[in-house]
Amino acid sequence: MYQYLKHSKFGPLVVFVILFTFTQLMAINIYFTEKNRELQMVQHESAHLKKRIEAALSQSNNATSILALLIEHDLLNNHFDEVAKELLKHNEYIDAIQLVQDMVIVKTFPLKGNEQTIGYNLKLDNEHVREIMLSSSLSGLHFEGPFTLRQGGVGFVGRYPIVQHDTLWGFSAVVIKKDKFIHLLGLKNDGTSDAFWYQVKKQQGGKKYIPLFSEQRTDFTKGIVDEQYLPIGDWIIQVKLKDPVYLARSLWFALAGLAVSVIFSLLMLCK
After folding, report:
1. Which of 20, 114, 176, 178 has CA atoms 20 to 30 A from the CA of 184?
2. How far apart are CA 132 and CA 141, in angstroms?
3. 205 phi/psi in degrees, rounded to 5
4. What is the pLDDT of residues 34-93, one digit of tens each?
5. What's this model's pTM, rounded to 2 decimal places?
């Protein structure tokens, strides 16, 4: 076969077509293989981030439900600080625990740094009223935020309805500050890691999603992106690969294949 191609006037062209076709098929295979590998990386990372957020929500749910149960059965009495301290000890995501009675914050632990929250009437803010009405209509924990906290900084507040003697007594609540939340998720303050861009959005007021990080950093509708939905609290989690290489690698191989095809064809012409 080689001798035939060597002495045929169409031999160089045939060699070029065979080599070019083979290398370009290899380049296409590299394109899809690498793209799928990078997509799996992003999917794995977004699933991992979802689990970490679920852990934060689970801790918050446990803490607020325990407090609610104690109040509903008249068991808390004057032991709020002791109970709250113990709950915080075992829940690393939570910065503070509160009791809200008749829309007014009556207890906060720790009190230091959170003094301004005591006596604050949530009815004074329409945004809070909407979220509290939603919280009271649910049987479990509901998060509001991110928003500017009265004690300073930005964060989330999760509220769990307390029903005592068939009447809505108020809420047990947890405060999760943005900086600590981001740190425990393993992210930088700008919502990135060495390899990925991240976005976490929380629905607010039943109308819009409030982003945790600036939306001007990157476009999550393009590139290697995966999105996860967390129904508890209505969260959207997005992860995007910073520097995908699947296109560059496949193009490099395609160009190398073209060069090899041309070189072998020219060598046959010279013989």
Report:
1. 114
2. 11
3. 65, 15
4. 999 999 999 999 999 999 888 888 888 899 999 999 998 888 888 999 999 999 998 888
5. 0.81
